[in-house]
Amino acid sequence: MKTRFFAKIFFGYIFLIVFLLTLYILLTINNSKKQQISLIYEKIKNAVDIVGTVAESFTDTQGKFHKLLQEIDKKTGVRITIIAFSGEVLLDSESEPSSMENQSESPEFKRALEYGYAKAIRWGSIPETQVFYYAKKSSRFIVRGSCPIENLSFIGTSRLNQFYRIFLILFLPGLLFSVFLSYFVYSPVREILRISEKIKSGNDIIKPIVMRKDEIGKIIENIAEIGNKSQQIKKTEETIKDKFINFIKVVDFPVAIIKVDGDIQNCNDFFRQIVEIEKETGYWWEKIKNFELSRLIKETIDKKEPAEKELKLKEKIFVCKTIPFFENDEIFVLMFDITTAKSLDKKRKEFLTAISHELKTPLTAIKGYIETLKEETTDPEKQKYIDIIFHNTERMSRILQDIITLSKLENPEIEVEMLPVDLEKIAKNVFSLYEKRALKKGLFISLRSQNIPLIKGDEFKLEQMLINLVDNAIKYTEKGKIEITLEYRQDIKSIRIEIADTGIGIGKEHLPYIFEKFYVADKSRSRNTGGTGLGLAIVKDIVLLHNGRIEVESTPGFGTRFIVYLPA
Asked: Which of the four pLDDT bands, split at 50, 70 and 90, describes residue 566?
């Protein structure tokens, strides 16, 4: 790692230095080439300018003027050619004009004729020779100068040696600078690597070795600090985990920590005894023989959310809770023994059912005698007391009937036959039953439903649920309206039933408890209306019996909204 990374930085800088030096030399050569070409053209141009100036005053083109051209050629090395506008060669410093071709198609001639002057470079007749041309237009003809350059080279040996020396002189400091710069860059990287290795291994981090005051030094300090805090958190987590494992061993209820990949990481003796784990090795689905518990754990892993279920193990009843901790790929399994509570609850229900049935007969008899007295008594004073007795007898009868209903709903041994039910029809029946009562009280009542599919359920119990909710809405609403709404929610495959009123509402502090048995939010009003405190408990049990859920929203003084969701 060290060699590779340092080498990458070092050779990267070397490559950069070589590249920059090479680029400098190439640019210098290119600049030298341009200067050489410029000098060649300047030499030709000077010769052409002299000839052009002299040519204007010469009339003897075959005598002294021709000698002048030859003399300029000899001194400057520039061949001079005088060309008529027709392209015919009139004079040439090196050849007989008659032996030369018409120049009207040569590029420098054509451009000079059009623009006044022109430059051109062409390969000569001698191999590896280039000829530089410069042509200028005068009032009478075109004066062209040419200069052949053999083995065109713009850098001499001495200049090339100079470039080599410059390259070496600059390269050696560059090499040393690359070593220094590579170490300068690699040093903090090496320190970061050292700190990260310590974080990985879990060792304590010492003070950073690279002491720099710039941003990189600050980054190293921050990483070291983060590493130290990470180690502290890790140690704290390990301490907490150790304490939790010790806690698991001493608690008097079954607890286990199960890895998602299959291993039971930790469990206490209670869990081993209840679940009957025989072997120590293997996956949890091999060790746990109880099908319901295995399915609950699997459900938690699949859905990645807590789950809860009542399980019967070894003639005991447990509430089993599974809590996922996917950060550690673990699931906590907690089991609480509710056998005694269940037994007491069962006895309570049996007692209530028994006493309700025992009280029902004498209450029916009392009610019958009171009704007889009510019919036969004419004294208003006596009638008043009889009415009070009759009212309370009616209330006791309703309470007993509600207790019997709740006992039936909560009895797991009683199986409910689920048949196709038309909720829309049930809602219309309930609406018809309460429409006159609502109108008599001055309330507007409405029913809205459309295309509600049949569901599996108990028709009588679902009707009782709606009756209780609508009855409550009318009881606790003095003015305004009652709205019954049925809606099929295709997105969640359920039917939404809403009963909304504009009544007195329920205080926020009461909302968590309104579905509890015998809980009454407004006791004085409940006594006046004959409420038993069991109606909403019955509603909730009916909803749960149909695998649904119920919600409530309420604002005191503005009304209440009960929302029931039943699977479609």
From this structure: very high
**What homologous superfamily does CATH list for 419-567?**
Histidine kinase-like ATPase, C-terminal domain (3.30.565.10)
Mind listing the pLDDT tens digit for each residue in 477-528?
Answer: 999 999 999 999 888 889 999 999 999 988 888 888 888 777 676 655 555 5
Is 2-150's fold the same as 251-337's? yes
**Greatest mean pLDDT among 8-12, 28-32, 77-81, 175-179:** 77-81
CB 332 within 8 A of CB 325: yes
How far apart are the C-alpha atoms of 336 and 435, rounded to whole Å? Answer: 49
Alpha-carbon gap, residue 251 to 268, rounded angstroms: 8
Candidates 132, 120, 66, 73; CA nearest to 97 is 66
**How far, in Å, CA of 308 to CA of 334, rounded?**
10
Query: Cα(426)–Cα(531) distance, rounded to whole angstroms?
Result: 23
pLDDT tens sequence across 436-479 = 889 999 999 999 988 888 888 888 889 888 988 998 899 889 99
Instruction: Residue 529: name the closest of 479, 478, 476 by CA.
Output: 476
Q: What is the pLDDT of residue 469?
A: 92
Where does residue 539 rank: exposed (0-12), middle (13-18), buried (19+ CB within 10 A)? buried
CATH topology for 2-150?
Beta-Lactamase (3.30.450)
Enter the DSSP assignment of 532: -
Helix (H) or strand (E) holding 150: strand 142-150
Looking up tokens 């509890």 gives: 516
Q: Shortest CA distance to 49 belongs to which of 131, 125, 116, 122?
A: 116
The domain spans of the chain are 2-150, 251-337, 341-410, 419-567
Q: Is the dihedral of CA 183, 184, 189, 194 positive or negative?
A: positive
Starting at the edge strand that comes first in sequence, how are the strands of the sheet with 255-259 ordered?
Answer: 264-267, 255-259, 330-337, 316-325, 307-313
d(CA 355, CA 361): 10
Per residue in 239-271, pLDDT (tens digit) is: 777 777 777 777 777 888 877 777 777 777 778
Instruction: Tell me the mean pLDDT in the region 44-64.
Output: 73
Cβ atoms 139, 57 nearer than 8 A: no
CATH, domain 341-410, list 4.10.1110, 1.10.287, 3.90.1150, 2.60.40: 1.10.287
Q: In the structure encoding, which two tokens stand for residue 433, read together?
A: 């039953």
**Average of pLDDT values for 414-423?**
78
**Prediction pTM value:** 0.43
Rg (CA), the chain: 54
Domain 251-337 belongs to what topology? Beta-Lactamase (3.30.450)
Contact indicator for 403, 356 with CB cutoff of 8 Å: yes
| DSSP assignments along 362-386, one per residue | HHHHHHHHHHHHHHH---HHHHHHH
pLDDT digits over 161-220, tens only?
A: 666 677 666 667 766 766 666 666 666 766 666 766 666 666 665 556 555 666 666 666
E-strand ranges in 178-314 read 255-259, 264-267, 307-313
